Amino acid sequence: MTAFAVMIREKITNPEEFATYGQMAPAARTEDLKALAFYGAFEVLEGPPVEGVVLIQFPSLQAAKAWYESDAYQAALKHRLAGAEYRVVLVEGL
């Protein structure tokens, strides 16, 4: 069953660390990862303001979790955590 990673950037706290994340994260891409939205225009209808949203589709929840837990993404992730505040949710589709 299809799954999605929803990544919501609340704010950048360290631009240098976030830039390093931006350089490293593409190394974690896999053939089954499909970006559906990548920091495009958005409108917050409820909740606090955010700076950006990414929506990534995977063939399954297991594939999404494998991407997140991969060595390549974990290497980049430490820079995202040091450079920005995010909410990240994996959700199974219909």
Kindly describe this structure.
The protein has 94 residues and is of the alpha+beta class. It has a single domain, classed as Alpha-Beta Plaits, CATH 3.30.70. Helices cover 34% and strands 33% of the residues. The protein is built from three helices and four strands; from the N terminus they run βαββααβ. The protein has helices at 15-24, 61-69, 71-83, and strands spanning 3-12, 34-38, 52-58, 84-92. The protein has a four-stranded antiparallel β-sheet with strand order 2-3-1-4. It is globular, with a radius of gyration of 13 Å. The chain starts with a strand and ends with a strand.
Describe the structure concisely for a colleague.
The chain is α+β, with helices and mostly antiparallel strands and 94 residues long. The protein has helices at residues 15-24, 61-69, 71-83; strands at 3-12, 34-38, 52-58, 84-92. Strands 2-3-1-4 form a 4-stranded antiparallel β-sheet.
